TrEMBL record:
Compartments it resides in: Mitochondrion outer membrane
Primary residence: mitochondrion
Keyword Oxidoreductase: yes
Top enzyme category: oxidoreductase
Domain of life from the UniProt record: Eukaryota
PROSITE patterns, A to Z: FAD_FR
Xref: InterPro entries: CBR-like (IPR001834), Cbr1-like_FAD-bd_dom (IPR008333), FAD-bd_FR_type (IPR017927), FNR_nucleotide-bd (IPR039261), OxRdtase_FAD/NAD-bd (IPR001433), Riboflavin_synthase-like_b-brl (IPR017938)
Pfam family, one: NAD_binding_1
Protein name (database record): cytochrome-b5 reductase
Polar residues composition bias: residue spans: 42-65
Organism: Linnemannia gamsii
Family classification: Belongs to the flavoprotein pyridine nucleotide cytochrome reductase family.
Length: 399
């Protein structure tokens, strides 16, 4: 056999080596090694014994078998793939049986999100934009796969350009799987995410995270209440529409709902037609009042063919005690510990369990019930505080 190789050790220029193997030679001299210009037979000397090496390019009298690095890598990768595949299969089986959306970062790294999850941001396609008013639009999204969005929960939307996020309450969420989700968003000059959403186009992918439960408003949850009062401002009505539907369609208990809906103008009384229809359909369960900052002007009729708009019949001005008195469940007086007269009076009455919910712009919430604070459990101030409502009687939705 003739083998050609190069060696660069101990020489400025690589020397060419020739190795001649013979099957008839003495076993001790199975390989004879000489340079390109072999020495004369008379001066030939037996090469000295060398240590067996595995990494040297020099020949040895008894070379140990070389281990293939490529073969080791292939074996390692194959074993790793089998192990990872087995792990992912077992985890997927666990997810399918337990109903977990996504709670393992290792699995999420290898598998794209199947639906909305609180664990990571999920790109969701914006399919439709409907202009509702001058500054407000209804955004409809196609979910990657159907999922259940709990009533009175929030979904976070992220502006990936500046990494800002904002929570919005889905419109008409129901207690069953749904393939789409709608968000009612008003554009504010100082609102980074609201500006980002109003600049978005249909077909664009928007990153979302959630849903996150804000207040338990499902049918079973509502059974604990006899009366629920609501004060909504602007797009804050989206937090209450699912609760209203849940209460009115619950055959097991007739929970009474009362709502004061405040906005800057009648144009921004979102879902007013739907609310008016529900009042007519469930007159014993639902009462709704409206207030706007300023009464709308009634333009002069240009011709007989133009019908003049009807006169505004709701309240005018910011939310005040007069608007709420007689509409909301009454405030419960705080019982002073040791006051026997108060305790006796309360014990003799049939106590109805009620709560007042407040949702809207931060300025409106502060005016009605005082600042929510980081914990959400700050004492009740504002209009409701002046009316005697206690902290356990009022829930302020986060802005």
């Amino acid at each position: 056999m003739l083998r050609l190789s190069t060696c660069s050790r101990g020489a400025k220029t690589a020397s060419t080596l020739f190795t001649v193997s013979t099957s008839h030679a003495h076993p001790a001299a199975a390989q004879i090694r000489f340079y390109a210009r072999p020495p004369k037979p008379s001066t030939f000397q037996q090469p000295p014994a060398q240590k067996t090496t595995f990494n040297s390019t020099s020949s040895t009298t008894a070379r140990a078998p070389k281990t293939s690095t490529t073969s080791n890598i292939i074996t390692f990768l194959a074993a790793s793939s089998i192990g990872i595949g087995a792990y992912l299969y077992q985890w997927n089986q666990h997810r399918s049986s337990s109903g977990v959306l996504s709670s393992n970062p290792f699995f999420d790294f290898f598998s794209p999100a199947e639906t909305l999850t609180t664990e990571k941001w999920t790109p969701v396609q914006l399919t439709k934009i409907t202009k509702v008013s001058e500054h407000t639009s209804l955004f409809e999204f196609q979910l990657p796969s159907p999922c259940t969005i709990p009533i009175s929960s929030a979904i976070y939307v992220k502006d990936d350009q500046i990494q800002a996020m904002r929570a919005y309450t889905p419109v008409h969420s129901v207690e069953q799987e749904q393939g789409t989700v709608q968000l009612l968003i008003k554009r504010y000059s100082e609102g980074q995410v609201s500006r980002f959403m109003h600049d978005a186009k249909e077909g664009q992918k928007i990153e979302m995270r959630g849903p996150v439960l804000i207040w338990p408003g499902g049918k079973e949850d509502l059974k604990q209440w006899d009366e629920i009062g609501m004060i909504a401002g602007g797009t804050g009505i989206t937090a209450f529409m699912p609760i209203i539907h849940s209460a009115l369609t619950n055959p097991d208990k007739k929970v009474k709902i009362s709502l004061l809906f405040a906005s800057q103008s009648p144009e921004e009384l979102y879902f007013k037609d739907e609310l008016d229809y529900l009042v007519k359909t469930f007159p014993n369960q639902l009462r709704v009042s409206y207030t706007v900052d300023k009464a709308p002007a009634i333009p002069a009729v240009a011709s007989e063919t133009v019908t003049a708009p009807s006169k505004w019949e709701g309240h005018v001005g910011f939310v005040n005690q007069a608007m709420l008195q007689g509409l909301l469940p009454p405030a419960k007086k705080a019982i002073t510990k040791g006051d026997v007269a108060q305790e006796t009076e309360q014990a003799g009455k049939e106590v109805k369990k009620s709560i007042v919910l407040v949702c809207g712009p931060e300025s409106m919430v502060n005016h009605v019930a005082g600042t929510r604070g980081m914990s959400g459990q700050e004492p009740i101030r504002g209009v409701l505080g002046a009316m005697g409502y206690q902290r356990e009687q009022v829930f302020r939705f986060p802005n």
